[in-house]
Structures are given as structure tokens and as C-alpha cells.
Amino acid sequence: MPDSMDMIERLVSFDTTSYKTNIQLIQFAADILSRCGADIRMTYDDAQEKANLFATIGPSDVPGIVLSGHTDVVPVEGQDWSADPFHVVRKDGRLYGRGTSDMKSFIAICLALAPEFAAAPLSMPIHFAFSYDEEIGCIGVRRLIQDVTTLPVKPRLCIVGEPTEMRVIVGHKGKKNVRCHVHGKECHSALNDRGVNAVEIAAEMVTYLRRMQRRIREQGPFDHGYQPPYTTVHTGVIQGGTALNIVPAQCSFEFEFRNLPNHDPEELMAELRGFAQDLVPEMLMVDPATGIMFDEYNTTAGLLTDDDDEAAVLARQLSGNNDTAKVSFTTEAGLFNQAGIPTVVCGPGSIQQAHKPDEYISIEQVLQGEAFIRRLLARMTKT
Q1: For the whole model, what pTM was predicted?
Q2: In angstroms, what CA-CA distances link 134 with 52, 131, 232, 285?
Q3: Residues 6+ apart with CB under 8 A from 96
């Protein structure tokens, strides 16, 4: 069986960029875990081109612990890498390659140590949950969680191994992604009273979102465990118009809320819908076919786990660090928690290295991750 370092090299060699298949990596992991006697469950996307893996070692009649990670990585196109991003380079106490930090090293540690779990007299099961399409909205894990919640015995708790430098994360922001489409009426710009300018309507809404952000920044709600300590509102894409002398009939833009876990993004969405509704009557006076439509195409729950929850207490004990923290990025942990499986985030590597060219993890972080999992094994072993 390869050690953790070799396993990292093997997993990085699978190009699992989110727009590609992850089946080869999942099958590789399934083969390793099957040889360890694991019970294997797979869930797939609609095209059967991507898969989640949920594997269990140990007794099935008591609640166990989930070690969770995503197999997909972000693209390397347009980035200036010093070497092949899908071939690990060991240099200066670091392992360089796409996914070394985010987050194939955690999965590699799990796979490398799986035989040790298989050989131990476990008092409860260890579950390995490896998902697809986390990077584009925590897509795949939703099917995995839906499948897991049908099991006769639901897992006791979950540790998501995103790169936190082995800090225990008990909170992260949620995220709602929305696409808005404004359908106006086209005409010559010299006769703009006969048209409905979709770009200008969209601009009014984007400006309203900006005012919403200013208000939240000044009035809260606040949680100073996060940076920034409030819900953020962001417009990232806008497209519309064909020529300067044509009143544009179409405009679309995409925006997001990254909300504090206890700040309901549905309230913000309802507020924006109300503002949009106020714009519609003037549009309809020109043409009844005009309108504003919203596509809320992805919502991921935030995470809020109490410091004294069993998952947080256990992770602190395993990490040897009594402190907990919160982060502004979103993970799959919120979805596990939402499904009634208490969850924390704790894993090797730094988010500061994620998504960048020459992404790396330090060997010291890999060793800390191994120590964490071996301490977990000791806690789960019958005495």
C-alpha cells in the first residue's frame, strides 16, 4: 500500500477538474477500500460520468464517524505553473501540484491509513465520503448525503478535511447564487420612449444590491469570528446589449449572497424581489411581454456548530488545539450539518494556497494530518 506521500502523487495524477470526469479516481479509491473489506456505496450524476463514493469499514449497527472530502479541483488553464500541475513535485519540504492543498492530500491520508482501520478492532464504523463537483457549488455531495440519510444507522458525526492548517472550524458562511434575466423591448435609441432598456433596469437592480451591501456592512448583523464579519453581496457577471444605438432587449447578471449562518439569505432575496416588482409596472406599460426573472441556481447552507458539540470536542482533542475558528468560504460541511450529522471542518494544508498556480502543501502538514487520523483510529479502537 502506498504511503501518504505516494498516495498524494497518485491522486493528483488524476485530472479531476470539475468539468471532467472523476470516475477513474473514484474507482481507484473504491478498489483500495474494497481490499480493506469496506462496504461500498456509489451515487452518480445524471450522465453517469461523475461519482460519489461512500465506504464503510467496521460494524454497521452503531453510528460511526465520516471523513469527507471532494475529489474535484479547479482549472489550471490560464495559470502560470512552474511544472506539470498534475505531476507532484517534491521540493523544499513541500509537495506541489493541483489539489495538493485543496484537498486531495486529506483523501490520500485517508486511503493510505485505511488498512490500519481495517486491521483494528473498531468500536464503531469509519466512513469515507468522497464527492464530485464541490468546486462548482457542492453539487455531488447532495446525492451522497441523500443516500446516507436512508441508511438504517445514520453517522454520528462528520469531519470535512478542507485545508485549515489543522485548525478546527465550527462555522462557515452559506452561499446563494442567483442569475437574473431582464427582458426588455428593443427599438432605435432615438426613440427610446418606445422601448424598455433591459441594461438600465438591470443596472438599477445591481445598484440596489450595492446599497444592500453598504447597509449590511454598516448595520449588520455581525459575527466577528468571520472576515469580513457580515454577509457579503456581490455581482460578478453582467451581459447585455448589442449596439449603442439600439435600446437593449436583453440583459442578465449573476450575483451571490455569502451569508452568516444565522442570517437568512431568503430575506435578502425577498427584499430584492420586492424592489424588482416595483420596476415591472413601468415596463409593462410599454410592452406586456417584458419582465424580470430570477434563477436561484445554487444554495449551500452555512455551518454553525457549537464549541461543545461532540464533533467539535473530538476534533479539538485529535488536533491538540483547544481553539476553534470560523471561515468565510463555503464547504460541504453545512450540508452534512443540515442533514442532522454534526460536522466540523479540519484538514491539512492552507486555503491560502488553494486555486493558485504552483499550489502546494507542506510535508509537515501532511504529517500532522496523518497524526490526526491515527489519533482518531486509537479513539475508535476497542480496548
Answers
A1: 0.94
A2: 11, 7, 21, 44
A3: 82, 83, 88, 89, 90, 358, 359, 360
Cα gap 60→115, rounded to integer Å = 18
Phi, psi at residue 97, to the nearest 5°? 160, 155
Q: What angle is formed at CA 362 by the lines to CA 361 and CA 363, rounded to 5 degrees?
A: 115
Q: What is the DSSP letter of 372?
A: H
Residue with cell 473514484: 26
Non-local CB neighbours of 258 within 8 Å, separated by 6+ positions = 173, 174, 175, 231, 232, 234, 328, 330
Alpha-carbon dihedral 132, 133, 135, 137, rounded to 10 degrees? -130
Instruction: Count CA atoms within 13 Å of residue 313 on its CB side.
Output: 4
**Residue range 249-296, pLDDT digits in tens:** 999 999 999 999 999 999 999 999 999 999 999 999 999 999 999 999
Catalytic residues: 72, 134
